[in-house]
Amino acid sequence: MFRKIISASLLCILMQNASAQLDSAKLSQGWSYKMSGFVDPQFYMDTREVVSAREEQMLFYPAAKKLDADGNDVNASASNNMLAITARIGMKINAPDALGAKVSSYLEGDFTGATDGGINMLRLRHAYINMRWEKSNLLVGQYWHPMVAHEVMPGTRPLNMGIPFHPYSRYVQARYTQYFGNLELNGIASFQLDNKATGPEGGSTAYLRNSCVPELNALIVYRGENLYLGAMVNYVLLKPRTSVTDAEGRQHKTDTKIGSTAFSVFGKLNAGQVSIRFQGIYGDNLFEQGLMGGYVESKLNADNEYSYTNLGTTTVWADLSRTKGVCRPGLFVGYGCNNNFGDKVDYESTVFGRGFDIDYVWRVQPRVGFYPTEYLNFFAEVEYTNACYGAKVEDKDAYYYKSDYNVDNYRFILAAVFNF
After folding, report:
1. Of the candidates 118, 142, 223, 252, which lies 20 to 30 Å from 125 by C-alpha distance?
2. How confident is the model at residue 1 (pLDDT cuts 50, 70, 90)?
3. How far is CA 268 from CA 109, 159, 336, in A?
4. What region, left, alpha or beta, does residue 43 occupy, with left being phi > 0 and alpha being psi -120 to 50 degrees?
């Protein structure tokens, strides 16, 4: 409790000090600032246990069956909760021009924590410096991972923001953009922090750091008056181990790595008061993005030398919403499948990732927003998610999963938002 109070107090002090400084002489020297944020309490109820994070507010999909001694499904149980941890505060600071560019910075935090153990603690969401020239732009700092494509994010209110169909992650990065009229070419090199890769030591940034290659992304965007389209390719290289132990207990250095590639197309169409957004993703090892996938570590010999195989996923989603008026209905639909479902895995191998025992997942999520004012809004949503789980089949020294049964979950959400 004491740490939570300290975190909140430090945030207030920092914001007050920044405001006081910018309210002084600097304002007359080309400096300006704008604070923003919201308070966002949410009530949610599930009809089944779910695979999730942050006190189940970030929902992935319904949990598999868990039978008791009488054959009853223990996970077929309802629960509810109410949280306000998504409350957010941010500040944009505009500075005088430098090196021929318009210079600004943005700092934002919320209270969801970097892990479940940090809930209600202040955590960093965005922190970047932006330099804009006439035909180019450089962003350095923590920002949305390029696969998130923040211009076409779903209009849903829950913390999961379309996971496991829509990516949800922020990386520390250097992002360079070159403008050619309505076209934008982007090159991004990024590094993990909150969204860590998984591996032999659990979730860690070390697998990416030890590869000595940042995550790389190339992105092309067309930005029109009412049409926004983009395509990207992403590459990540991981080094899961720096050493292995032989049969006699001696350690040996290893440089074995695994490279993974992903592709995405996305877009947004505005037509009057209606907005249509969509995205499709095909790629390997997208665990860090909140999607299904990962990789398999296979033992090659008794000296514990390993090889690696990617686990891929395909997802598509679309979001239809009304963007103006007091009443603003919307609908999110998503589908994701495990590209490697049914593949055999040796019993000496280890699977690192999410959803390896799932064939496919789909979701339908209608919502309605009530906007009596721009600063006070109310929302009601129903999130229906269905997952097809596989039964484990043994085959000599290996096993695989075969589609077996479906489970579903209804999540009912009520939220109030105060924007400032």
Report:
1. 223
2. very low
3. 27, 21, 20
4. beta
Question: 293-299 and 183-191: which strand pairing?
Answer: unpaired
Tokens of 258: 């695994």
CB 344 within 8 A of CB 392: no
Q: Residue 257 corresponds to which tokens in the numbers above?
A: 């790595």
Give this prediction's pTM: 0.91
Report how far apart, in Å, the C-alpha atoms of 55 and of each of 66, 73, 82 are.
20, 22, 10
CA–CA distance, 175 with 187 (Å, rounded to integer): 6
CA distance 46 to 53: 14
Question: In sequence order, which residues have a C-beta less than 8 Å from that of residue 392 and are 6 or more positions away?
Answer: 357, 399, 400, 401
Q: Return the closest-CA partner of residue 260 out of 211, 201, 193, 328.
A: 211
User: What's the pLDDT tens digit per position in 325-361?
Assistant: 999 999 999 999 999 999 999 999 999 999 999 999 9
**Between the CA of residue 179 and those of 64, 103, 188, what are the distances in Å?**
48, 17, 15
Task: Tell which residue, 360, 381, 408, has the closest CA to residue 47.
Answer: 408
First to last CA, the chain: 27
Residues near 220 by Cβ (< 8 Å), separated by ≥ 6?
Answer: 183, 184, 185, 186, 230, 231, 232
d(C-alpha 287, C-alpha 64), whole Å = 19
Residue 26 amino acid letter: K
C-alpha R_g of the chain: 23
Kindly list the distances between the CA atom of residue 73 and the CA atoms of 63, 68, 366, 384, in Å, as whole numbers in the listed order: 11, 6, 28, 19
**What 3-state DSSP class applies to 88?**
strand
User: Looking at residue 25, what DSSP letter applies?
Assistant: G
* Cβ-based neighbours of 214, under 8 Å, separated by 6 or more: 189, 190, 191, 208
The two structure tokens encoding residue 391: 């039964």
